[in-house]
Amino acid sequence: MSSKLPTSALLILLSVIIYSQSPVLLQLLGQANIDKTRLIKWSDSKPLNNHDCKVIHKADACEDVKIHYASNTAFLACGDPIGRTYWYPCAGVRHPEKRAEASFREQLFKYDITTGLTTKLELEGCKEEEDDDDDDDDDDDAFTHIPTSSPTYSDFYITNDHFFARGPLRFLEETYGPFTWSTNVQYCDANNPQVTCKQATGTFPGANGINSWNDRLFVGDARNGTVTVFEIQEDKSLKWSRQIDLGAAADNINILPTTGDPIVAVFPTLEDLPAYLDNVRSLGKDFLVPAAALRLDSARDYTPELIYFDDGSVVSFMTTGAVDPYNKLFIGSSVLQFGGFAVLVSRDTYLTR
């Protein structure tokens, strides 16, 4: 179904759908038909590479991690677990009035792999913008949770988690989604003072994690459990190459630097965000959410292979995993957990080669 259906027509359909609860109308509107039994392939896995883990409590709710291999440094984007229970738009939680203003200024940390020291970063030269939570601004929160991949320093690709920013059509997405037209990949050019973005792919039910290696772009889908591989063309357009069924919903993607293999954090059980938000203080303690990561082996046509599995005792609701093959360790982190990331010294040669 085209994402360009007129807004007026969508509003009429929304009214009819709410009144009738018609599956036929929802299908007409483009509701994605996802077989959820496909998304629990790894749910009964045995613990794997979860030994000798150290949970770091200096940072909380670390949604993503990137390793700078040359300096033996991991950089983490972290936040306030409680604040996210009030303001977490990608999960349909939008109550900014309940969240302390200071908690919106989320934090970056660096982890020194050599010394084990975790330090909060102070960004110089980055002036904090004034609060622009203005309901009259049509562009405000248009992209509410935006993973990125950057081929260069002046351009990048992004994914968005919803098509609509607010209003009745956002309610439609959150209540009756996912829809086949909800998300896509955009190419953004930052060479000029005004950053411009344009759609670079077709649509996905839940485009989420994204990363690139040489001329390949990898896009994970958090709804239908796939990674789609695109070839990056000289003009920065994208050519579809293949789609890999992961057997679990995908979150953030990192790249193994020795081979270019994607490392994908996946949810081995069906995601239940409302329950995680309700139990955020207990995540990783009394309330456990299984965690897993896959390596897509490029030498075997990107065949998924399980490289990490834990019942959630280490990191619950793990949203990213990164491998350092030089120091032989794995770092996993969670967007909601107190004690936001864990470091594992690996004995598995396949994991780190």
UniProtKB/TrEMBL annotation:
Matching InterPro entries: 6-blade_b-propeller_TolB-like (IPR011042), Serum_paraoxonase/arylesterase (IPR051288)
Record's keyword terms, sorted: Signal
Biased composition (Acidic residues): 127-141
Region (Disordered): 124-145
Signal peptide: 1-20
Domain of life: Eukaryota
Name of the protein described by the UniProt record: SMP-30/Gluconolactonase/LRE-like region domain-containing protein
Organism: Exophiala mesophila (Black yeast-like fungus)
